[in-house]
Design goal:
three-stranded antiparallel beta sheet; alpha+beta
Length: 133
């Protein structure tokens, strides 16, 4: 035998012990997996009517400054929207700007200043969202 060499019987014994440890670990994992409680549930859907403060058309004007949309004036807001928050987003496809303002109790018109002013483009999209009252 060469000095420092491990006898073949010892190597085989360690290999067997490693196999038994791995088998025991795999068994424990499998046992834990079988104890997981899976129950059949149901997935449902429902409809809920959301009140609207208006169904009427609103006027929307973009206020321009140096080739950008700096703010948006929204008019025709009825009294029913008073106290609500109006959110406006203008997008030109590359950049967008948004802002919000509280609608006065009497309705009317408001001007929403955009946080960042997108460049005026041939095709733009202006989204309005009324939250509340």
């Amino acid at each position: 035998m060469v000095a420092g060499a491990v006898p073949a019987g010892v190597t085989q014994m360690w290999r067997r012990m490693l196999e038994l440890v791995m088998l025991g670990t795999a068994g424990a994992v499998l046992g834990a997996a079988t104890s997981v409680n899976l129950s059949s549930g149901t997935l449902g859907a429902a409809r809920a009517a959301t009140p609207r403060c208006t169904n009427a058309a609103l006027t929307v004007f973009q206020n321009l400054s140096a080739g950008t949309v700096a703010s948006v004036t929204v008019g025709g807001l009825p009294v029913g929207c008073g106290g609500a928050t109006l959110q406006v987003t203008v997008s030109n496809g590359a950049t967008s700007g948004s802002g919000s303002i509280s609608v006065p109790a009497g309705g009317g018109s408001v001007t929403v200043v955009l946080g960042s002013a997108p460049l005026v483009a041939a095709a733009e999209r202006t989204d309005l969202v009324v939250i509340g009252p």
